[in-house]
Amino acid sequence: MKTVLVYSGGLDSTVLLYDLIHTEERVLALTVDYGQRHRREVEHAKRICGRLNVHHRLADLRAIRHLLAGSSQTSASVDVPEGHYTEESMKATVVPNRNMIMLAVAAGWATAEGCDRVAFAAHSGDHAIYPDCREPFVAAMGLALEMAGWHKVDVHAPYLALTKEEIVGRGVALGVPFAETWSCYKGGTRHCGKCGTCVERREAFGLYGMSDPTIYQSV
Amino acid sequence: MKTVLVYSGGLDSTVLLYDLIHTEERVLALTVDYGQRHRREVEHAKRICGRLNVHHRLADLRAIRHLLAGSSQTSASVDVPEGHYTEESMKATVVPNRNMIMLAVAAGWATAEGCDRVAFAAHSGDHAIYPDCREPFVAAMGLALEMAGWHKVDVHAPYLALTKEEIVGRGVALGVPFAETWSCYKGGTRHCGKCGTCVERREAFGLYGMSDPTIYQSV
Predict the structure, then answer these.
(1) Partner-chain contact B146 A140, CB within 8 Å
(2) With contact defined as beta carbons under 8 Å apart, do B129 and B122 qualify?
């Protein structure tokens, strides 16, 4: 298969990237810059693709950030909540319709490049707060893409049933350089250790029983 | 209902705009600039919204034009085909996954604004060459949006079963200033009269039995 991966440079999508380069005929990686507070991830994504010799493109959507306001990730006035990712307070991090927008753009590029599918690394830990990381959304997007054109593009989300610690386990097996991935939502120069994504990242390494190579600002 | 209209400034979506301002509690209009050859339509959209006092925003997606290459509307190297809209040659005008991208961005804005639905003016004349103007696509997008979030956003495409001449008829009844709308795909300063959209526009006025107020470059 020829696959376009929606690639953030974070832990989950980096593990998926390492998975896909072993299974796919061709992998292209698309990083979406929607003016997110944690734009640092874009540089991490570029660097990792460079190392793997994966064709990487940036979808610069900063110009529509003003339409997707109200989230801590697109509005400077909304604080990034601290605590566990599954808490109600994490809803502040939701960017309206982000996954559909990213998948739609990735599918456009996939069509232009003659690819068969778009992939993203939604996993079971995301489900609690993000409906657009669940199986019904993935299935409906697959159907919408099937109906949208002559060139069929599937949606591939192989980690839907995995926990984050299982993804860490896959990453270990694949030799993923975890320290080069970026998860923190706060946009500092180090992982904060307190936001939902940092808490979840730390926890995943702990549950998997591996020492966490990430340098956090707060211990 | 509070509705975000995907609004190009063309004939069909202008008639729908005039329809919606009579039926909706609130109408917002979103024009997508994807670097299309016929960017002139953006100015027409702005002007008409200004006249109607409709809240109008631009989604500037020019930065991702390079990802959606291969269409006559996004690539300077691909000529705009001439002839009837339903001909095979018109496939050159297809921008990969354009409608899904536009609806996804509109739905993001609709969510941020607390709107109930996104509308677009797909009609039966489009169906022949654009699968993403057909009912199965609209239904699948509605389902994908339902699955994507807590805030439900519907897809409203009330002209799916109408022909273009029936849309002209609605426009006449609603007092639409047809001469201020822009359809031509060629990007000149006047409607060319030869591209698919011009041919279809002309034909629709003719079939409806109304004199066409458009000034065409070629008679």
Answers:
(1) yes
(2) no
- Closest chain A residue by Cα to residue B135: A147
What per-residue confidence (pLDDT) applies to A78? 82
Chain B positions touching A93 (Cβ under 8 A) are: none
Beta bridge partners of B6: B30
pTM of the predicted model, to two decimals?
0.94
User: From CA B9, how far away is CA B17, in angstroms rounded?
Assistant: 9
pLDDT for B219 beyond 70: no
Question: Is the C-alpha dihedral spanning A171, A157, A110, B95 positive or negative?
Answer: negative
Residues of B whose CB is below 8 A from A63: 59-63
Residue A118 near residue A110, CB atoms below 8 Å: yes
Q: Which domains does chain A have, with CATH numbers?
A: 2-208 (3.40.50.620)
Q: Does B55 touch chain A (CB under 8 A)?
A: no
What is the least distance, in Å, from the CA of A211 to any CA of chain B? 35
Query: Is the ipTM here above 0.85?
Result: yes
Confidence of residue B90 (pLDDT cuts 50, 70, 90): confident
Residue A150 in contact with partner chain B when CB distance is under 8 A: yes
Write the residue in A95, A98, A144 that is nearest to B137 by C-beta: A144
pLDDT of residue A130: 84
Helix A135-148 vs helix A98-113: crossing angle, to nearest 10: 40
**Residue of A95, A97, A112 with shortest CB distance to B107:** A97
Nearest CA in chain B to A114: B96
Read off the amino acid at residue A187.
G
Instruction: Please state, in angstroms and rounded to a whole number, the distance separating the CA atoms of residues B2 and B10.
Output: 22
B21/A96: higher pLDDT: B21
Token pair 């199965």 in the structure block, residue: B136
- Nearest Cα to Cα of residue B177 among B5, B28, B13, B15: B15
Q: What is the pLDDT of residues B34-62, one digit of tens each?
A: 887 778 889 999 999 999 999 999 999 99
- Which residues of chain A are under the pLDDT cut of 70? 85-86, 219
CA proximity to B134, closest of A139, A140, A147, A152: A147
